[in-house]
Here is the input.
Amino acid sequence: MAKSENKTKPTEVTPDAFIAAVEPERKREEAQALDRLFRRVTGWTPVMWGPSIIGYGSYHYKYATGREGDFLATGFSPRKANHSIYIMPGYAEFGPILDRLGKHSMGKSCLYIKKLADVDLDVLAELIEAGLKDLGAKHPVKAS
Here is the structure.
């Protein structure tokens, strides 16, 4: 089976340069706060994945179909409508933490937050840690 490549890969753009260009100013300030939070929780230096995702750490996955690749272990993207928070591989077992987080919505591996004031950042830090622990039990996670 031919190996298809993941389209989202690390880039040479620095996360600091990306965050500096985020508009509006409130979104940029919140992105800076999220960057500080992720750096503190993970202890890792961020890397840009694709044009808009700031990732911390990485892991290698291989599915039963034979598809495999590398992806960020955790991270975020300051999107126009929401901050997308990436906790891999998902949130299935984190209900008790999510119940304490505050106002958010969810996708399969994304947590959406409109503004940081809507959530408890200590609980978000707990969720990031729990996500990395869960991911590390399934796949070896490497620091970035």
